[in-house]
Amino acid sequence: MKKKLMITSLIALFAIAPNLSFGQKAKKKLVKSAKTTAPAKPATGSLSKEIVEGKALLTKSDCLACHKLDVKLVGPAYNNVAQKYPATPGNYEQLAAKIIRGGAGVWGEVAMAPHSTLPMADAKKMVKYILSLR
Ligand code: HEC
After folding, report:
1. Which of 1, 95, 109, 127 is buried most, with the most CB atoms less than 10 Å from its CB?
2. HSE-CB of 15 using CA atoms within 13 angstroms
3. Contact of 33 with 17, CB cutoff 8 Å
4. Alpha-carbon distance 52 to 25, whole Å?
5. What pLDDT, on a 0 to 100 scale, did the predictor assign at position 38?
6. How far is the CA of 6 from the centre of ligand 1 (A)?
7. Whole-prediction pTM value?
8. Using one digit for the tens of pLDDT, what is the confidence trace for 7-56?
9. Of 112, 108, 106, 107, whose CA–CA distance to 126 is shortest?
10. DSSP 68-91
11. Which residues contact ligand 1 via a Cβ below 6 A?
């Protein structure tokens, strides 16, 4: 029940987000949506599905013990991670590997715990969700 509510609010967030004005970012989004007016682009549809799955996976895992969306906790705020890394396949790959392996040095001296049993595919979905937060 709770999960359903969260998914619903995520969908609502995605519905509202493009209408919010974030200066340059809003412009970028506009350009993007203008480009995707051609119907049936499967990549866009499956990406948004993976983003929704990534959020659910992330919520079930231990991530939120150290990360918040907009405030630095033990780890960086996910907003800041999204600002640092554009949503590219290379960044999905690199950050998913970092989540699995753990490590420090990018945001400070504190290390992220490794998630060695986390499947790469799941880690990538989580990253897709995080990098969608810009
Ligand atoms: C024990 C606390 C902790 C947990 C649990 C944790 N993180 Fe982190 N995370 C950190 C810290 C600390 C950093 C900064 C590491 C650095 O500076 O290189 C970080 C960095 C990151 C980064 C950015 C990495 C980079 O190189 O810029 C991502 C993405 C991330 N975490 C995602 C996740 C996800 C997804 C999970 C859950 C599967 C998770 N974290 C769980 C503490 C944590």
Report:
1. 127
2. 6
3. no
4. 21
5. 47
6. 22
7. 0.76
8. 555 455 455 555 554 545 545 555 555 554 545 444 568 999 999 999 99
9. 112
10. -SSS-SSS--HHHHHHHS-S-HHH
11. 58, 61-63, 65-67, 74-76, 81, 95, 98-99, 103-108, 110-113, 115, 126-127, 130
